[in-house]
Structures are given as C-alpha cells and as structure tokens.
Amino acid sequence: MKTVKLDINYTEYSSLTEMDPKDQELVKEAIKAQKNSYAPYSKFNVGAAIRLEDGTVVRGSNQENAAYPSGLCAERTAMFAANANYPGKAMVSLAIVGGFGYDVADTPCTPCGACRQVMAEYQTLSGKPMSIIMFGTKKSWKFDKVDDILPFIFDSFNEK
Ligand code: THU
User: Fold this and answer.
1) What pLDDT does 11 receive?
2) Which of 50, 87, 106, 145 has its CA 20 to 30 A from that of 120?
3) Domains of the chain with bracketed CATH
4) Which DSSP letter does residue 32 get?
5) Which residue positions in the chain have pLDDT lower than 70?
6) Exactly one of 25, 75, 121, 159 is catalytic; which is it?
7) Is 75 considered catalytic here?
8) What is the SS3 string spanning the chain?
C-alpha cells in the first residue's frame, strides 16, 4: 500500500495580453460567443470558442430552457457543433468565459464535470491534446490537456 501524489501543471495569467496571441484571439471569440447566450433562468452567461486543427473557430454559448435539464452548457454546445459540422477535425483549444448579466467575471469560468467528460472523449477521438483556457478579467488559467482537469478519465478503453 502507498499514497500516490498527483501533480497538475497549469499556467495562470493576470491579464489577456500576457497570453499567447492565438489564445487571446480565442478568448475574444468566446466573449463574442457569450453575447448569444440564452440564459433567462440562471442569468449566468457563458461563451466558448474552439479552435480546430485547421484554424477554424467554432463558437457556442449556454442555451437554457423552461424545462431545465433540456438546456446545454456553452462548452458542449460548441463541441457538438464542431463535431457535427467538421467531423474528424481535432479540437486543439477551447476557451471559456462566463459571468452574470453578460458580464465577463474577473475569475476563471471553470467547466462542469459533464463538459469535461465530453472534452475527454473528443480529445481521445482525435489523439491530439485539447488545451483549455478558463478566462477571467483578473485571473485566467490554461491547462495543456483535458487530463489536467479530469484526471483518471473514463473512456471507452476502460471498458475493454
Ligand atoms: N454553464 C455553462 O454553460 N458552462 C459552464 O462551464 C458552467 C455552467 C451554464 C449552464 C447554465 O445555463 C448556467 O451556466 C448556470 O449554471
């Protein structure tokens, strides 16, 4: 028996301009995406933008519904749109912003567990790491791969 320690590395930024220019661009796309959020119930507006391996950017935002579970998070809206419209193209980076009343919060918008699981599946499908950028106006985080935000990922290989 032994105790095992898990180390996770990520980068923290205190402003958008500290980021790699391509990441800055993707965050700006996520901010644009947030404007199309439909969240009359929670009033929490989330935008997501995905860069595909060929440079195409796909946007998504949270879409709520009076029948609450029928709504969907911004990240899954974007990922499903990406794979529905550009099947087989790796999603190499995903940026997320969120805030109440269409504001961009000053702290990072962290994805829910269900979205992390969907990210994991698309990353496994493409075989290429998907970096995740969680943006906040005063603090942002970048993780180089989904494994870093969902350790011990369940994928179909676990079933074999
Ligand atoms: N939401 C997202 O779109 N992404 C997240 O990462 C967290 C939560 C949405 C779901 C719901 O429409 C609203 O934010 C409040 O939970």
Assistant:
1) 98
2) 106
3) 23-147 (3.40.140.10)
4) H
5) 156-160
6) 75
7) yes
8) CCCCCCCCCCEEECCHHHCCHHHHHHHHHHHHHHCCCECCCCCEEEEEEEEECCCCEEEEECECCCCHHHCECHHHHHHHHHHHHCCCCCEEEEEEEEEECCCCCCCCCCCCHHHHHHHHHHHHHHCCCCEEEECCCCCEEEECCHHHCCCCCCCHHHHC
